[in-house]
Amino acid sequence: DADVTQTPRNRITKTGKRIMLECSQTKGHDRMYWYRQDPGLGLRLIYYSFDVKDINKGEISDGYSVSRQAQAKFSLSLESAIPNQTALYFCATSEGGSADTQYFGPGTRLTVL
Amino acid sequence: ELKVEQNPLFLSMQEGKNYTIYCNYSTTSDRLYWYRQDPGKSLESLFVLLSNGAVKQEGRLMASLDTKARLSTLHITAAVHDLSATYFCAGFMDSNYQLIWGAGTKLIIKP
Asked: How far apart are CA B33 and CA A104, in angstroms?
């Protein structure tokens, strides 16, 4: 089984709808991240959490919110989706330490019409 | 503010050739990461470089870090078709514990 899972894998929605993307991990890592990927722009950090009580905004948090329900679960919400939020969304986890390598989920492709 | 720039952004090459992808970054960064992404897939960690002069190798890929020049390179030796992918570098920003990503280099290796 995959260590980092994301649901749904694909979602098409309409402008103004509320959307939740979910991420679960079995790696036992404390740190979790949400990124979006747009063609030609690399990845941009939306939010990150170093433990259940620690939530931090990333580079592009406007229009998004998150919830860290447990060490293993981190969800991303779009309160009122807009077309320019159409992107590929990735969840990642890391365990901290000197290397702190991030491990990525399979991604959620979101289309906002 | 850390900025990360990769070049080239697109590279088409023949099998058996050698080539280098460059990753320049704008301010001090304690760590430099290289990831691989296959089309429609997730990102896979390749290397983490933690200090000046660090060199890591895995198969036909070798990554190095020069913190004084603010430059990391990913060298491909005797390329094979299976290495076709998009390669990203990312620098670590101490001030807020974030990774800042380059735009990626799309590598196509023709058999």
From this structure: 14
